[in-house]
Design goal:
about 475 residues, alpha/beta, 6-stranded mixed beta sheet, 4-stranded parallel beta sheet, binds ligand F0G
């Protein structure tokens, strides 16, 4: 692997720079655009390859190599990110790889959801099964490896909780120090506990995620600290690899639809980049539609597209919102990567939808009832899928993969409040349709508190079991 094999290309003005020449905020000094990592074999938006002497990696050889590495005992081969390292040559020396054996996440079928929606295939790629419980690990292994190779001693991020948990863990593995800015009181406890457990300097700011980003930007401008939010394009190189793993799990069949939650709006574009690279290299014959779903209370992309007449083109500026959703992971009003998200929607032919709090809770309970579970932000995928099916955008024969981004244990308070019937206000409960009320009632499983007396317990269980069989 050689650093010289990659460059950074501004997604706005197309300027190309060496990776080592990037500034501390990972933005183009000319136009403030974000960067993509490109390689000699990458395709450019006009379909050209950047270097005339670039040889495309051989698709069959790659498939074989990636399969072979599965049997290796080397940590770089056991990592579900670095196993695909031929398509992310971002570091010079593999000894700098920082890995917790991320990736290798399961692809589950969701038979009940498929049946309820009248679809043949609904699958869930569970990125919550990563070492720190979210998809962020696939990005952090990549970016922390670069930080280590470039000699950084400190890394930092602003986060709604998962980025910080992942960064803290990978920084600790790398022997680097980390600083986390999180919005006070607005992240799930499981995530807050992780950044402390992994030894980060955890700073709770009395603001929201967007306010945390402002402070972080000032910090990295003044000190030699590597910024690890998703504007860092190296993170996205790791986050593109679940696309490779997914099609490999499907024996190189390409699903028609991928559905992701949208927060800071980087992950959808990372996956789209992965699919497009595979397509360009002849590993797959077409790319799936990548759709992005936002919570209605944190919907700047959805709103900006809607106010632009539904078109993804020529949106001059994003309309930021004051974000508010119980899906705290995606409580973001002014997402950095919105232009990259639009590009992903445009190039793959996907859609952007919004879903309401009650719809998120129902979808989360449904995913839980399949024995899988996820955090609230991940459940927007199923809630969004229901909308896309109802709009006739997804047909029965089409294969859908939901990207479940976080583990259910990340936010157990939400789950407990839901099952106890304490999640919503009276007003919100009243907004739930009759048919959804029935679904909620069947899914809610509040704990029963009883005296420790066998007869009492048996009587209660008997009546509960009758209810189940009724
Ligand atoms: N799902 C989960 C569980 C997340 O934690 C996030 C983002 C997203 C979806 C959205 O991904 O930002 O690429 O659109 N969490 C960030 C964080 C912002 O700080 O943990 P995105």
């Amino acid at each position: 692997m050689k650093v010289a094999t990659h460059q950074l290309r501004c997604t706005e003005c197309g300027a190309r720079i060496a990776g080592s020449a990037v500034n501390s905020i990972f933005r183009c000094p000319t136009c403030n655009g974000l960067y993509d990592v490109i390689y000699p074999w990458s395709s450019l938006p006009n379909g050209d390859t950047p270097a005339s002497d670039s040889k495309l990696p051989n698709a069959s050889a790659l498939r074989w190599l990636w399969q072979e590495r599965r049997t290796s005992t080397l940590s770089v081969d056991q990592s579900g990110v670095w196993r695909f390292r031929d398509l992310l040559p971002i570091i010079d020396d593999l000894d700098h790889v920082v890995t917790l054996r991320e990736g290798n996440t399961p692809l589950y079928d969701l038979p009940r959801a498929s049946k309820a929606l009248g679809l043949n295939w609904v699958l869930a790629k569970h990125q919550g099964m990563n070492p720190t419980g979210s998809f962020k690990d696939t990005g952090m292994t990549a970016a922390l490896s670069v930080a280590r190779e470039r000699g950084f001693e400190w890394v930092a991020c602003a986060s709604t909780g998962n980025t910080s948990a992942a960064m803290a863990a990978y920084a600790a593995r790398a022997g680097l120090r980390s600083i986390v800015f999180i919005p006070e009181g607005k992240i799930a406890w499981g995530k807050l506990s992780q950044s402390m457990d992994y030894g980060a300097l955890t700073v709770q700011l009395k603001t929201d995620f967007d306010g945390c980003v402002n402070v972080l930007t000032d910090l990295v401008n003044r000190f030699p600290i590597m910024l690890l939010n998703s504007v860092n394009p190296y993170r996205l190189e790791g986050q593109k690899t679940p696309a490779f793993e997914l099609v490999e799990q499907l024996e190189w069949q390409v699903p028609e639809h991928i559905i992701v939650p949208g927060g800071n709006l980087a992950n959808g574009s990372a996956l789209a980049k992965g699919f497009s690279e595979m397509h360009h290299l002849g590993l797959i014959s077409r790319v799936p539609k990548v759709s992005i779903i936002q919570a209605e209370g944190a919907n700047p992309l959805y709103r900006s597209i809607t106010e632009n007449g539904g078109s993804f083109d020529n949106i001059p500026e994003l309309i930021p919102v004051k974000a508010n959703t119980r899906a705290t992971a995606i409580r973001i009003g002014n997402p950095a990567s919105w232009r990259k998200a639009l590009r992903a929607l445009r190039t793959t032919g996907g859609w952007c939808e919004q879903v309401f709090e009650q719809e998120i809770a129902l979808a989360k309970a449904e995913i839980g009832s399949e024995g899988i579970g996820c955090e609230p932000a991940s459940a927007v995928t199923l809630a969004g899928l229901k909308k896309l099916v109802a709009q006739g955008k997804i047909g029965a024969e089409e294969r859908v993969v939901l990207i479940l981004t976080g583990h259910t244990l990340k936010d157990s308070n939400y789950t407990i409040d839901y099952h106890r019937g304490e999640l919503f206000t009276e007003e919100e409960n009243a907004q739930i349709s009759g048919s959804d009320q029935i679904l909620h009632a069947a899914l809610r499983k509040p704990p029963i508190v009883l005296e420790p007396d066998t007869d009492t317990v048996f009587r209660e269980l008997e009546s509960q079991m009758k209810l189940v069989h009724a």
